[in-house]
């Protein structure tokens, strides 16, 4: 919510609450409180009795409690915050509830606010699900990855449009370092969630950082399961990203298998709205071999099909003798919905990455500068020098060479 909207929202809330309160006022000096019976008229200049004074004091205290109720109700409806508190204070005394008149006005207010945001469509202002923006950015900023673009957009869009998915969406990204796996994961987070990777609905796990020692794997398992459960309870559409997935201990992967399995109606918590992204360098050599074969045959890389690469990827994963990712139940029980291949990047792709890096920092560039950045990279294999060994990973740092 923009900084200019909050004062307007609070001002409108006050007006609506005053209107709601005015519904409780009768005419000609007779007062009908929202929660009580009609009080008798008070003659001008007539002193109040002790009983009447106590009654008014009691009603003023009730007004304060009622104002708190209205605010809790508004927070719950608009920002999805304080819903538990709203339930707790909804009946501070027997037979005492939030007046329907006030609820009607707050419904109008929340509807008005949602017209400026995404919370009406998703039911949670933290979740925006901007598929159009995701597709546009992938097409404009992800270079040389026609298969990844197509699979990610179709898989995510189809999953979000399904009101009752049978299981969580699980995507496994494969390819050399620097080909765009992390870039796409960040882009998915930034277009599905208002706060991107900083959203409380998104959890990023890096294998060697979060789970460095195999001797503590049992402790890691308990922590990981708790963190996933808490995130799912907090957000109806959580995103979990596992970087360097091939370095995860297989028992960690098996521990989170229930969160990705087909939905069990008996479960108290629904995990089927979750999205899991696994990022791995595993399979990169196989993907590169296919790309090199197409180049040697004089065929465009855009002719490489998903069917061909997915089949080759699965075969390589099954042959991986010591890989925890390959030997986990994720593969054995077909819990991965899509294997997403990231092709190796060529010279002209690196130039596009360099252009994007200059533009991102607001710096001017020339074709000569882009060529110079690309020539700084190491290309393989030795004979053809076709693919960048680091992809575009170090390109943003390379342009520092051109700063004045």
UniProtKB/TrEMBL annotation:
| InterPro entries per UniProt | ClpA/B, P-loop_NTPase, TOR1A_C, Torsin
Domain Torsin-1A C-terminal residue range list: 345-402
According to the UniProt entry, its GO molecular function terms are: ATP binding; ATP hydrolysis activity
Cellular component GO terms held in the UniProt record: endoplasmic reticulum lumen; nuclear envelope
SUPFAM superfamilies found in the cross-reference section: P-loop containing nucleoside triphosphate hydrolases
Any one Pfam family match given in the protein's UniProt record, by short name: Torsin
Checking Gene3D superfamilies in the record gives: P-loop containing nucleotide triphosphate hydrolases (3.40.50.300)
What the record says about family reads:
Belongs to the ClpA/ClpB family. Torsin subfamily.
- What is the name attached to this protein's record? Torsin-1A C-terminal domain-containing protein
Organism of derivation: Melopsittacus undulatus
Q: Which gene encodes it?
A: LOC101875110
């Amino acid at each position: 919510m923009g900084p200019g909207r909050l004062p307007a929202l609070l001002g409108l809330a006050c007006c609506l609450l005053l209107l709601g309160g005015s519904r409780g006022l009768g005419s000609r000096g007779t007062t009908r409180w929202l929660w009580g019976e009609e009080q008798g008229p008070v003659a001008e200049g007539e002193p109040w009795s002790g009983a009447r004074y106590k009654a008014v004091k009691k009603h003023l205290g009730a007004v304060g409690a009622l104002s708190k109720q209205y605010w809790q109700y508004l927070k719950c409806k608009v920002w999805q915050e304080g819903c538990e508190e709203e339930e707790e204070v909804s009946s501070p005394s027997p037979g005492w509830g939030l007046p329907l008149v006030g609820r009607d006005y707050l419904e109008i207010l929340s509807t008005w606010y949602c017209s400026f945001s995404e919370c009406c469509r998703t039911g949670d202002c933290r979740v925006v699900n901007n598929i159009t923006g995701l597709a546009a950015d992938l097409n404009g900023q992800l270079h040389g990855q026609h298969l990844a673009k197509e699979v990610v957009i179709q898989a995510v869009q189809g999953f979000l449009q399904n009101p009752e998915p049978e299981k969580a969406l699980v995507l496994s990204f494969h390819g050399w370092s620097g080909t765009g796996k992390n870039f796409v994961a960040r882009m998915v987070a930034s277009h599905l969630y208002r706060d991107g990777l900083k959203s409380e609905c998104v959890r990023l796990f890096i294998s060697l950082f979060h789970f460095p020692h195999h001797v503590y794997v049992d402790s890691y398992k308990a922590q990981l399961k708790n963190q996933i459960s808490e995130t799912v309870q907090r957000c109806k559409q959580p995103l979990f990203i596992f970087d360097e997935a091939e370095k995860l201990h297989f028992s960690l992967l098996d521990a989170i298998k229930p969160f990705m399995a087909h939905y069990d109606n008996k479960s108290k918590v629904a995990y089927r709205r979750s999205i899991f992204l696994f990022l791995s360098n595993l399979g990169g050599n196989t993907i590169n071999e296919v790309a090199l074969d197409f180049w040697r045959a004089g065929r465009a890389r855009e002719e490489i099909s998903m069917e061909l690469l997915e089949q080759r990827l699965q075969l390589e994963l099954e042959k991986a003798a010591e890989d925890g990712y390959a030997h986990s139940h994720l593969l054995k029980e077909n819990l991965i919905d899509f294997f997403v291949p990231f092709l190796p990047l060529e010279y002209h792709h690196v130039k596009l990455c360099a252009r994007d890096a200059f533009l991102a920092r607001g710096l001017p560039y020339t074709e000569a500068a882009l060529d110079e950045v690309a020539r700084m990279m190491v290309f393989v294999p030795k004979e053809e020098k076709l693919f960048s060994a680091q992809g575009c990973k170090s390109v943003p740092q390379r342009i520092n060479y051109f700063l004045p």
